[in-house]
Amino acid sequence: GDSVTQMEGPVTLSEEAFLTINCTYTATGYPSLFWYVQYPGEGLQLLLKATKADDKGSNKGFEATYRKETTSFHLEKGSVQVSDSAVYFCALRRGYQKVTFGTGTKLQVIP
Amino acid sequence: SQTIHQWPATLVQPVGSPLSLECTVEGTSNPNLYWYRQAAGRGLQLLFYSVGIGQISSEVPQNLSASRPQDRQFILSSKKLLLSDSGFYLCAWSPQGFNTGELFFGEGSRLTVL
Q: Which chain A residue lies closest to B102 (C-alpha atoms)?
């Protein structure tokens, strides 16, 4: 079945540091890929998405590129802020199938 | 615009007591509806999903149940709560039919079973 693997956290960075959160997936065909963010005490919200190979999703300074050859969708940001502290979930969906989530990676940014 | 609300936001219940969490969606028709659970330090576990009124699919056998009495209403219930039912419960919706697959989440309900 489909699966998503994320790097384990927590990830602790200083403000303005470079961020990478790794995500790889297993799925047949061409799933759509997503990054969701969950701020403390809240529900999840979509951060960015990519629907086909080589697409780059971007939002709020975050980027991720859909790499079919490595089945990856790593999340990056050039300069993190304290307000980026949250839990980040990688996810995929194939066609009509249900969305499959990774286990989440907690990011803590310290001033 | 579409909105999703779930309540209560916080709930503390004794073991063996019943549970009812409600979720409603506004601004869309015939959505797919989902209940997820997020246990402390763990990822998201899909509990139930529904593609229409009265149509419920269960992903994980447990003492929880779900119902969809109206098109945009989704209810999560239990007759007798267990300690292991503690967690953060999230309702979500997505448009019917093929789409890019984005889910729209509610604010969550934190359940503590004592």
A: A46
